[in-house]
Structures are given as structure tokens and as C-alpha cells.
Design brief:
The chain is α/β, with parallel strands linked by helices. The chain is built from 14 helices and ten strands. About 40% of the residues lie in helices and about 10% in strands. α1 packs parallel to α2 and α7 packs across α8.
Length: about 375
């Protein structure tokens, strides 16, 4: 699992089983609909896809949507994958579909973890974001069922202007709910997500530093999505701590170790995952994208094997080469560890190789050039 060459095999595969969902979330990437699309991959096509995923050095597989529970065969697909040895988790929507019986069935087939979204510590904030009143209470009930059935819980939260002022309360809720992982998403303006819903670049940096300090005192893991520059913040903080303790540290060595996960402290992938680089997304109709937030199609599994698309697509290959990144990302000393959100770069500029537009860091190379210009 950890000796993985991202040029050949992804660390994680996200499969959007369906776009059907009963919620109307403000930020929905999929712009989910109430009804299933007749073009969805069939059960047999799903099994073939799972075989292809397994053959790519058996990455983690996440069933997402829409709401994966809107597919009646979701447990059959999960069982097929789990019997092959694939580690499967699921991110269902908190709707009346999430009954204790549904969760019991998931446990029986061997689903390793459930993830629910909570976007605020109160029903008012969460339900506003999810577009349906009662969603918060449904989520709390579902989490209670998961605890009763002893299934590990992951909470997903999208950081936006609607909840940035209540993050301390949000962290306390995650702790009180005894979750194993808090997966913190940073809004990308795609699908229904709007630029006006996003926090500012300076606020991103503040939240990153807050998350790092939080990570040192809570028992749950913290993972970020569409926030590759959090890795830089973690490494910078760790280096400052080492210097404060008079520990010897080699800067270049630290960056390389950060790239392989030995000092990044994120507790997740052994090296930085980014869109198309260790990460691949398959849509409900089989289209393959670098991620669900980067809507640039690289192929379709009905026409081309997943491995061929992932390994050979010019889109994926360029995303795996940080030296091709433009602007400050292309010269940043953290580019192999961080690389910025390729999704956000695309959403804001139309070019997935452009600089991360919500990063305030100025790379050493640019600072040096600025100093030379001042001197001259």
C-alpha cells in the first residue's frame, strides 16, 4: 500500500455510483438530481470496474454520489469488492435511507468505515448548507446507530464563509461524536459551489494553522481535501518547532521527507495526493477525471481500461509533473509536497496547471528575485 508509484497506481479511487440524492447542498459538486440517470454503470460494469481497480495495486475505494444508497445494488457491489480484498468506505447522504437496518447490512458485508457530512455544529448552520431542514438531526441519529453497531465514523466538513466562525465548536462536536477522522474540505467553486461561498486566501492560512494546532491535542486524525497547501503549513510548523528546540534540520531533506510522509504529520497517504496524482475519480456514467472537483475528462471506462487512462492520459501525466505548474507554484520549493489545488486553479483560471489562487505563500525563488530587484 505504501510503496506506491503514483505514476502507475492511485492511492485512492472515488467512484460516483449515482448522482441521485434527496439533498440540495449549496456546494454540491455533482449538482445532484432527485432521480437516477439511466446511463449509470450497470452492476456487471461495476464489477468489471472493481476488478480493474483491484489490479492497480489495490488502492482504497470510496463509494460516493449523489447518495450511493440510492442504488439498490450498492451492498452487492460493496460485497463483491470486499470479497476481492478491496478496502471500501462509503459517503452516503443523511436522508431517511440511512436506517439502522441499512447500516447493519453495511456491517455484514464488511464496509470498513462510513463518512457523514456535518457542516456546522448546529442544525441551523448545517441544514442551511445542505438545503434540507432536518438533515442535522438525521445525521446525529445515523451516527448513534453507527456507534451502536461499532462502525468507525468519519466526519466530512466543507469550510466556507457559513461556518468559519464556529470551527472551535465544530471541532468539539467531532470530538464529542468520537470520530476516527475529521476530513476537512475547502470549497472549490465548481458544480453548485460559488466563489462567494469561499473563505479568503488569508483565512485559508489561518484555518490551516488552527488545524495544525488542533491536530496536536485531539485523538482523531485530521485530513484535508482541496487544501494541498496545508502540507506546507504542517512542514513549516514542524521545522519551526525543531529550530525552537535547537534540533538540527536540513531544509531540503525536510522537504523530501515531507514528500514521503515521514514528517508531514498528516497521518494519511504516505506522500502528497493531488488531483490525478494518486487520486482518480470515476463518474456515474464511467467518465474518468483527475478528481470530482476537476471536471476535465480523460476517458471513459466503457471504452478504455482505467489503468490505461490513469497512466497514459496527457491530462493525468501533466498533473503528476509539478515542474509543469505555472506561476509561483511552478517555482515553489514545496511543489512536490504540496502542488496547490489543481481543482481550484482550474475553477478560478480555466487552467489546471496554473498557480493555486488561494495560497498566500511566496516561494523562496520569488523572494530572492524581489530582493535582487530592490538591490538593483
Amino acid at each position: 500500500m505504501f510503496n506506491r508509484d503514483y505514476d502507475k497506481d492511485p492511492f485512492i479511487v472515488i467512484w460516483e455510483l449515482t448522482r441521485a440524492c434527496q439533498l440540495k447542498c449549496l456546494h454540491c459538486r455533482a449538482e445532484a438530481q432527485y432521480h437516477r440517470d439511466p446511463r449509470e454503470l450497470t452492476f456487471e460494469e461495476g464489477k468489471k470496474l472493481i476488478d480493474q481497480i483491484y489490479d492497480m495495486n489495490n488502492p482504497m475505494l470510496v463509494f460516493t454520489g449523489g447518495d450511493p444508497l440510492m442504488r439498490e445494488d450498492v451492498y452487492d457491489l460493496a460485497e463483491y469488492a470486499i470479497k476481492k480484498g478491496v478496502r471500501v468506505s462509503m459517503t452516503p447522504s443523511a436522508t431517511p435511507n440511512v436506517t439502522k437496518e441499512a447500516i447493519q447490512k453495511a456491517k455484514e458485508v464488511g464496509l470498513s468505515r462510513w463518512a457523514f457530512s456535518i457542516d456546522g455544529p448546529t442544525a441551523e448552520i448545517h441544514d442551511h448548507f445542505r438545503g434540507v431542514s432536518g438533515s442535522f438531526d438525521l445525521t446525529m441519529n445515523a451516527i448513534k446507530y453507527l456507534h451502536e453497531l461499532e462502525i468507525p465514523i468519519q466526519i466530512n466538513t466543507t469550510i466556507s464563509r457559513y461556518n468559519i466562525d464556529v470551527l472551535d465548536d465544530m471541532a468539539k462536536l467531532v470530538e464529542d461524536l468520537d470520530c476516527v477522522l475529521w476530513s476537512v474540505f475547502f470549497l472549490v467553486p465548481t458544480g453548485r459551489g460559488q466563489e462567494s461561498d469561499m473563505i479568503s486566501p488569508v483565512e485559508h492560512e489561518k484555518v490551516f494553522n488552527w488545524l495544525y494546532q488542533l491536530s496536536k491535542r485531539v485523538k482523531f486524525d485530521i485530513k484535508t481535501t482541496a487544501a494541498q497547501h496545508y502540507r506546507r503549513v504542517v512542514i513549516q510548523n514542524k521545522m519551526r518547532e525543531k529550530l525552537a528546540n535547537n534540533d538540527q534540520i536540513n531544509y531540503e531533506d525536510a522537504l523530501m521527507k515531507g514528500a514521503t510522509g515521514s514528517i508531514d504529520g498528516l497521518g494519511r497517504a504516505p506522500k502528497g495526493v493531488n488531483d490525478g496524482n494518486g487520486f482518480v475519480f470515476i463518474s456515474h456514467i464511467g467518465d474518468v477525471y483527475p478528481s470530482g472537483l476537476l471536471p476535465v475528462k480523460a476517458g471513459n471506462v466503457r471504452e478504455t481500461p482505467l489503468a490505461e487512462i490513469y497512466r497514459e492520459s496527457p491530462i493525468f501525466k501533466s498533473l503528476r509533473n509539478p515542474n509543469l505548474y505555472k506561476g509561483k507554484c511552478g517555482v515553489c520549493e514545496f511543489r512536490f509536497v504540496c502542488g496547490g489545488s489543481r481543482s481550484r486553479a482550474y475553477a478560478m483560471t480555466g487552467d489546471y496547471l496554473e498557480s493555486e489562487p488561494f495560497c498566500i505563500y511566496i516561494p523562496k525563488a520569488l523572494r530572492k528575485k524581489q530582493e535582487e530587484n530592490v538591490t538593483n
